[in-house]
Amino acid sequence: MTAITRSTTTLAATMDGRSRVMPFVGQVFMLTWRTLVTNFRVPAVVLPPIVISAFFLLVYQSTLGGASGFIPGLRGQSYLGFILPLSVVSAALSGAGVAGQSIVRDIDNGYFDKLMLTPVSRAALLLGPMLAGAVILALQTSVVVGLAVLLGLEPATGFAGILGVIGFALFLGTGFAGFTVGIALFSGNAAATQGASFIFFPLSFLAPTFVPLELLTGWIKTAAQFNPITYILDAMRTILNTGWDTDIILRGLSSCAVLAVVLFAFATFALRARTKRR
């Protein structure tokens, strides 16, 4: 820990008598690595989202596993492949709190204030915990996908498709982590940050969660059409059940990008607000 702290606080290095600032990519890497090391030392931080996502996957598969036999639009497809993306999104929502909790810990022990006194890029200060949270989510997703394979999942796109789903989890986790980082900077409170990570949970149910979008009606169909989670679920389901569809996958990636940009902007605003308060 001492070595990591020392290396992180030497973001401004002195070389040949001149002060040089570590390149932006190096700053992001170092802050990401430090956050990863800190979190992996506390397994209780990493394990709950895996347990929750695995539990939901087992329950959905046990109760709805045969639904693809009679639900229009799903005949001939795997319901496990249809429902697995929901577990991935649930893991992203519950696991995004890791990034925010890292910021809260640094605020509590004064490390965050020390970082603010260094010439570290403010963008790197936000991206480090966000990317660490996304990497942890990708690892958690890998475990859940492995469980799905044990339950009988046979992706239409093979191993490349599994990597594609994990990639979506990484992208989605980066976006949601921006929200919890923002809340952590605003509040500096662990309970508030953890509670805020559940605000986005309704989005996973205002979407074609258990049936295709075409079977929804009324206000919930309208809500689903404006919900970016709908297109992210659709992209992962397509990869797992039918194959590579460029248009659908691009819509899913665009939705992830919109969430990431908006929530990173929120985190940036929160950092500026915190800086002004001091």
Which helices and strands, and how do they pair?
Elements: H1 2-8, E1 12-15, E2 18-21, H2 24-40, H3 43-64, H4 79-95, H5 97-108, H6 111-116, H7 122-150, H8 158-187, H9 190-196, H10 201-205, H11 218-226, H12 228-241, H13 246-277
Antiparallel strand pairs: 1-2
Question: Can you offer a commentary on this structure?
Answer:
Residues 1-9 and 12-17 have low confidence and may be disordered. Helix 5 (97-108) packs antiparallel against helix 9 (190-196). This protein is an all-alpha fold and 278 residues long. It has a two-stranded antiparallel ribbon with strand order 1-2. Helix content is 74%, strand content 3%. It is elongated. It starts with a helix and ends with a helix. The chain contains 13 helices and 2 strands, in the order H-E-E-H-H-H-H-H-H-H-H-H-H-H-H.
Quick structural summary:
74% of the residues lie in helices and 3% in strands.
Question: What gross morphology would you assign?
Answer: elongated
Fraction of residues in β-strands: under 5%
Strand order of the largest sheet: 1-2
Largest sheet: 2 strands, antiparallel
Rg, rounded, reads 20 Å
Uncertain stretches? 1-9, 12-17
Mean pLDDT: 82
Order of helices and strands: HEEHHHHHHHHHHHH
Class of secondary structure makeup? mainly alpha
Count the beta strands.
Answer: 2
Distance between the termini: 27 Å
Helix amount, in percent? Answer: over 70%
Number of helices in the DSSP assignment: 13
